[in-house]
Design brief:
This protein has 5 helices and 3 strands; from the N terminus they run E-H-H-E-E-H-H-H. The protein is globular and about 40 Å long. It is mainly alpha-helical. It has a 3-stranded antiparallel sheet. The protein has one domain: Multidrug-efflux Transporter Regulator, Chain: A, Domain 2.
Length: 122
């Protein structure tokens, strides 16, 4: 789990791929696949090293929840993210609440790492 300081900006890219993968308990290749599929877009240093923010971590947690717990494939995840952005609604929050039997719990997310929406949209 990521340790957050109160003064840290959640959109600030700070984690290299190995640290992000360790936080998320995934292989670094998984993060590269998510990037290749257009689901995440980590920042890059001048030497082309990927850097992930807290918002990126939350977005990946949503991707993992949707694929592992809800049975959505990566193409479906992309469509859900696009719909949520276009419609301005909290589709992912509703799906999570329906899957857990909860109603009106916007402050919870599948991993407890942020708000119920997952990452802030770009």
């Amino acid at each position: 789990m990521a340790y957050r300081r109160l003064d840290q900006d959640p959109s600030r890219p700070v984690y290299v791929i190995s640290v992000a993968a360790s936080i998320l308990r995934v292989h670094p290749r998984t993060l590269r696949i998510y990037e290749d599929e257009g689901l995440i877009c980590p920042a890059r240093t001048p030497t082309n090293i990927r850097l992930y923010s807290e918002n990126d971590i939350r977005r990946i947690l949503w991707i993992r929840h949707l694929t592992q717990d809800r049975g959505v494939n990566l193409a479906g995840v992309r469509i859900l993210f696009e719909l949520e952005e276009r419609l301005g609604t909290r589709i992912l929050e509703v799906l999570f609440d329906e899957g857990t039997g909860r109603r009106g719990a916007p402050s919870d997310d599948p991993a407890g790492a942020g708000n119920g929406r997952g990452p802030d949209r770009r």
